[in-house]
Amino acid sequence: MTAQAICENLETVRKEIFDCAVKHNRDHESVKLVAVSKLKPHDAVMAAYGVGQRDFGENRMPEFVDKHAALPDDIRWHFIGHLQSNKVRHAVACSDLIHAVDSAKLIDRIGRIAGELGKCQPILLEANISGEESKFGSSLSGLEDLVQKALSTENVELCGFMTMAPFNAGHDELVKTFSTLRDFRDAMEVRHGVTLPELSMGMSGDYEEAIECGATYVRIGTAIFGAR
Ligand SMILES: *Cc1c(COP(=O)(O)O)cnc(C)c1O
Questions:
Q1: Pick from 20, 79, 9: nearest CA to 51
Q2: Beta strand segments in 13-67, E
Q3: Candidate from 32, 219, 228 with most ligand 1 atoms within 8 A of CB, to mutate
């Protein structure tokens, strides 16, 4: 994909996010675009960077560490992949936000390593709403314990939740999935007396429904950078 095509795609996606936010009575600035650059070369990231994109998402560790080291310092990096415990150090060192935390063990390890590195690590907890076994993330009942755990772990800042919709879900199922996560978030805010502002949901194929249901981060790869 040429740099020009990436810029055009980015413009299209930005406009669709804007239109969708307006259509659903939301402030368009409350929907942040994470450009998912996994498996794409540095040039592709820089093409998007050149037209103002600063939030990028990656999901594989050697590639993430490499891009983090090589690309501009003012990029905000999002680790969106499944996190293995032996990769936590890299994730904490390189991530502005870790999207897919799904166990107490990971929360502990993130807190300990963030403390060693002198930072407080923003995280999201990953929900598996559909219950598909192929997916990572925790059931909502398991997440209730993880919320408590994350809120009480030093050097961890719980910012909200992330989910992936079932593959090939139709409009109604998407809306049900995403609004279930939003309602869960609302309930956790009340129960714990905290704000959990971020909802990371929506990819190239389903971000309109996610924005309708309150997404604050949409993670979009293919629609910007082309097929992988
Ligand atoms: C790859 C990936 C995306 C982006 O998917 P597209 O369909 O290419 O937009 C979003 N979220 C996660 C967790 C991913 O792994």
A1: 9
A2: 32-36, 55-58
A3: 219
Lowest pLDDT segment from 59-73, 97-111, 119-133, 174-188: 119-133
Would residue 130 be called left, alpha or beta, if left means φ above 0 and alpha means ψ between -120 and 50 degrees?
Answer: alpha
Cα–Cα nearest to 124, from 72, 45, 181: 181
- Residue in 47, 41, 33, 34 with CA at minimum distance from that of residue 228: 41
Residue with tokens 């949901």: 201
Of 143, 134, 191, 29, residue with least CA distance to 123: 143
Give this prediction's pTM: 0.97
Of 85, 203, 99, 116, nearest to 158 (Cα)? 99
- Name the one residue in this structure whose structure tokens are 């050149």: 50
Answer whether 227's CB lies under 8 Å from 88's CB: no
Mutate which of 203, 211, 220, 228 for ligand 1 pocket (most atoms within 8 A of beta carbon): 203
Does the beta carbon of 203 lie inside 6 Å of ligand 1?
A: yes
Percent of the chain residues past pLDDT 70, beyond the cut: 100
Between 96 and 1, residue with greater pLDDT: 96
Contact of 228 with 211, CB cutoff 8 Å: no
CB 199 within 8 A of CB 160: yes
